[in-house]
Amino acid sequence: MTDAAELKARTRALLAEHPPAETDRPDFLRARFDAGLAWVHYPAGLGGLDAPRALQAVVDAELAAAGAPDNDPRRIGIGLGMAAPTLLAYGSDEVRSRFLKPLWTGEEVWCQLFSEPGAGSDLAALGTRAVRDEATGDWIVDGQKVWTSSAHTARWAILIARTDPDLPKHRGITYFVCDMTDPGVEVRPLRQITGEAEFNEVFLTGVRIPDAHRLGEAGDGWRVAQTTLMNERVSIGGARIPREGGMIGKAAGVWRDRPELRTHALHRRLLDLWVDAEVARLTGERLRQQLVAGQPGPEGSAMKLGFARLNQAISGLEVELLADEGLLYGDWTMVRPDHVDFTGRDAGYRYLRSKGNSIEGGTTEVLLNIVAERVLGLPPEPRNDKDVPWKDLAR
Amino acid sequence: MTRQPDLLYSDTEDDLRAAVRSLLTDRADTRTVLDRVEEPSPYLPGLWEALASGIGAAGLLVPEKLGGQGASHREAAVVLEELGRAVTPAPYLTGSVMATETLLALAADGGPAADLLAALASGERVAVLALPFSTAPRKPIEPGHRVPAVADALAADVLLVPRPDGLYAVDAADAVVTPRSSLDLTRPLAVVDTRDAEGVRLAGPEAGPAAVRRGLLAGAGLLASEQLGIAEWCLEETVRHTKERYQFNRPIGSFQALKHRMAHLWLDLVGARAAARAAADALATGAPDAELTVAVAQAYCSGVAVRAAEECVQLHGGIGMTWEHPAHLALKRAKADQLALGSAGHHQDVIAALADLPAPA
Predict the structure, then answer these.
(1) B144-149: long-range contacts, CB 8 A cutoff, minimum separation 24
(2) Which of the residues A189, A357, B60, B214 has the least number of beta carbons within 10 Å of its own beta carbon?
(3) Does B103 touch chain A (CB under 8 A)?
(4) B87 CA to chain A: closest CA distance, Å?
(5) Residue B304: enclosing H or E segment and its boundaries?
(6) Closest residue, chain B, to A303 (C-alpha)
C-alpha cells in the first residue's frame, strides 16, 4: 500500500530528476505520468500507483510548491473527467496504454459525442447510427451530435451510437472511441446567447471506426456511458473554495466598492444570496470531507443543482446592482474559447452564461427526478418507452 | 484561508444519537406527545430524568471537573436534532444549552454559579433564562420584573434573571409563573414575574449580560440542529405518505409536481445539515468566526424547518390538516423556532455587520 510518505519521496525524486525550471513542460508531464504521479489512484503503468485517491493532494502540494507545470486541467476536462475513467474501466490493454498518457498530458484533447438535437434529457433515444461493415469489421457512423465542447481542438472523442434500432432504446447502443481527424467528421461552431461559441455541432458522415476502438460489448453502450456520466458528476464540486469564492465574491465586491449603487431591496437579496452561497460552500466542504472519510453521499447532485440556481440568481442581482453599467455588455464578438470560466468576464456575461448551468450536465428538472427517485426512493412516473423498439418511438 | 470546520458526525456522536432516538421511540413517540399537549404540562413524566441523567445529555457542555460529561456543542447538537425530529417537550435547548452556557461563563471561580451548574449538569435541577424566547444574542438585554413568553419556565426549578445590578438565580417557587396559550404546543411559554423574589446574585452588571449573551449565542447556534431535525422528520414522513397514498391509480409520490417539491426539500436539508454542523463545530472549538457561522445557520435553517413543515402539511392533503396527525406539532414548533433567538432577518443584519455588507446609507 502506497502511503503519503512514499508519495512525497517519489514526488521529490521526480523533481530532482526532472527539475521543472530546466525541463520542457511536455517532458516533465510525461515523466510525471511514467512515475505514477499523474493520478495516483490509477493502476501502475497507466500514470498511477494504485494508491488511495485522496493522496493525490500530497503529490499536488509538493509539485505546486516546487513550481512544477500542470496539465492545464481546464483545457482537458472532458478527457480527464469522462473519457479517462471509461477507457480505464472498459478499454483493452492496448487501448488504455495507447490513449491514457497523451490524454493526461494534454497532448491529445478529448471531446464527448453524446447529445443530439433529438436526444437531450432523453439521451438514450439517440439516433446516430453505427453500422458494421462486414467486410472489414469496422463500424460506419452517420448522424449529428451537438453541444460538444472542445470538438474544434479535440483529437479523439468518446461516442455513443445506435447499433440496433430493433431493440428498446437503452439496449441497442454501442460505445466507441472516434477519431476526430476522420474525413467524415465536420465540426461547426455553435454560437450561444453569450455571443461566443464554446460548443460545437458535429456532423458525422460515413465515419469509419475500427472495432478495436469499441468500448464494452456491442449493445452495452448505455451501461458504459453510465461510467462516463457518473464521473461527470463526481468531478463537479470537488474543489475546496474559500468563503465568498465564486460568483458571490464578485457581487459582494461591487457592493463594498460602490456604495452609491446600494438600495434596500438589493441589500435584502444580497444577504439572502450571501447566506445561500455560504451554505453551499459548507455543503461542498462537507461533501469533500465525506469523500475523504470514504463515505461518499448523494449530496453531489445537491451541489450541481444549488450551484446552478445560485449562479443565476447572484449574477442577475449583480447586473441590477450595476444599474447603468448593467445595461452594457462587454463584447459580443464570436470567439471559440478552449475552456470556460463561469465567473470570468463581466456581469452581463456571467448572467447569460449561468443560464446554461441548469441545462448542461443534466437539466435541473431531470436531476430533481433523480434525487426524488434514487435518493428519496419515490416511485417513477409510469413510462411507455422502455419496452418499445427504438425505431417505433415517437419523434 | 477560511477555517475548515469538521462537518461530519463522529462515532461517539452516532452512538449518542442512537441512544437518544431509542429513548424517544420508547417513551415519547408522537402519539404519546400528542395525547399530552393539552394537559397543564406537556412534559412526559420520567423522560427528563432518563434523558438528562440516564443518558447524561444535560451535562454535555459542562467539563467533568464542574460536574458534567466534558463533551461539547457538537454532541448537544446531535441531541437537539433528535429532540427536533420527535418534537419532544423537554427543557433541553433552554436549560441544558442556554442556561448552562450562561453559567459556564460564570462558574470558573466556584461560588453559587458553579453549584447551580453542577446541579444542571447532573439533571437534578432545571434552570432557564428569564428572557423572552425571541431574544437574539446581539439584542440589548432589558431587565424587567415581568417577562412575557419565557420558554420552558413551567419545567424550571430556577430562573436566571437579568437585573440592572447583575444576573440572579431565583427559585421558581418564589416567582409567579403564569402559563400562556402557546403556538408551539410542545415548548410552552409562560409569563414570569420575579418582583417579590430576592434570589442569589451570580454576577455583576458587566459579567452578567456577557454571560447571558454567550448563552443566547449557543442557543441560537444549536437551535439550527433542532430545526434540521424537524425538517428531516417532515421530509421522511412526507416521502413515506406519498409513496403509500394512491390517487388516480398511482402513488401520488410518482407525480413530478410532488417529487420535485420533495427533492427541493432534500436539497434544503443537505444545506441545513452543513450549516448546523458548522455552527455546532464553531461553538465547540471557540472559532473566531463563531458568531458569523451561528448567524448563517439561523438565517438558513429556520426557513428550512418552516418550509419542510408547511410542505409536510400540504403534501399530506386533508390528513395533514387534522389534529390527529402529528404534522401540526412540527409546523408549530418550526414556526415558533423561526422567531426564537432572533428572526432570520435579524441574523441577516448580523451578517451584514460581520461580513462588511452594509445597508444603504
Answers:
(1) B145/B193, B145/B194, B145/B195, B146/B191, B146/B192, B146/B193, B146/B195, B147/B191, B147/B192, B147/B193, B147/B194, B148/B180, B148/B189, B148/B191, B149/B180, B149/B189, B149/B190, B149/B191
(2) A189
(3) no
(4) 22
(5) helix B290-315
(6) B267
Of the three residues A177, A198, A232, the one that is the final residue of a domain is A232
Does the beta-carbon distance from B256 to A381 stay under 8 Å? yes
Domain assignment present for residue A249? The answer is yes
- CB A263 to CB B8 under 8 A? no
Identify whether residues A201 and A345 lie together within a single domain.
Answer: no
* The three grid cell numbers given for residue A269, joined into one nine-digit string: 437579496
Diameter of chain A measured on Cα atoms: 74
Please write the tens of the pLDDT for every residue from B84-143: 999 999 999 999 999 999 999 999 888 999 999 999 999 999 999 999 999 999 988 888
Among A70, A94, A111, where does a domain finish? A70
Q: What pLDDT shows up at residue A322?
A: 97
Q: What is the pTM of this model?
A: 0.92
Instruction: Decide if A377 and B352 are in contact by the 8 Å CB cutoff.
Output: no
Chain A, nearest residue to B301 by Cα:
A279
Q: Closest-CA residue in chain A for B300?
A: A275
Quick check: B41 pLDDT over 50?
yes
State which residues of chain A have pLDDT below 50: 235-237
Q: How many structural domains is chain A composed of?
A: 3
What is the tens place of the pLDDT at every residue in B282-339? 999 999 999 999 999 999 999 999 999 999 999 999 999 999 999 999 999 999 999 9
Which residue in A271, A293, A378 is closest to B348 by CB distance?
A: A271
The residue of A281, A304, A378, A383 whose CB has the most chain B CBs within 10 angstroms, and thus the best one to mutate to test that interface, is: A378
Comparing A76-80, B54-58, B210-214, the range with the smallest average pLDDT is A76-80
Task: Enter the CATH code of domain B211-354.
Answer: 1.20.140.10
Instruction: Decide if B262 touches A, using CB distance below 8 A.
Output: yes
Shared domain check, A299 and A259: yes
Range of the domain at A155: 79-232
Contacts with A376 from chain B: Cβ below 8 Å:
235, 239, 259, 262-263, 266
Q: Count of CB atoms within 10 A of residue A293's CB?
A: 10
Task: Considering only the beta carbons, identify the residue of A267, A279, A368 that sits closest to B300.
Answer: A279
User: For residues B243 and B254, is the Cβ–Cβ distance under 8 A?
Assistant: no
Residue A32 and residue A101 in one domain = no
CB-CB contact of B220 with B341 (8 Å): yes
Residues of A with Cβ-Cβ distance to B253 under 8 angstroms: 372, 378-379
A131 and A182 in a single domain? The answer is yes
Contacts of A368 in chain B (CB under 8 A): 259-260, 263-264
Closest by alpha carbon to A122, among A170, A166, A163, A78?
Answer: A170
CB A82 within 8 A of CB A158: yes
Q: Is residue A384 part of a domain?
A: no
* Chain B residues touching A293 at Cβ < 8 A: 8
| A228 and A99 housed in the same domain | yes
The verdict on a CB contact (< 8 Å) between A272 and B348 is yes
Same domain for A214 and A86? yes
Using a CB-CB distance cutoff of 8 angstroms, which residues of chain A are in contact with residue B296? 275, 278-279, 282
Residue A268 sits in the same domain as residue A292: yes
Q: Which three cell numbers stand for residue B324?
A: 390527529
Residue A232 falls in the annotated catalytic set:
yes
CATH number of the domain where residue A228 is located = 2.40.110.10
**Lookup result for grid cell 440496433:** A164
**Is A264 among the domain residues?**
yes
**Residue A255 cell numbers, joined:** 457592493
| Residue B54 DSSP code | I
pLDDT of residue B1: 44
Annotated catalytic residue, options A62, A116, A201, A232: A232
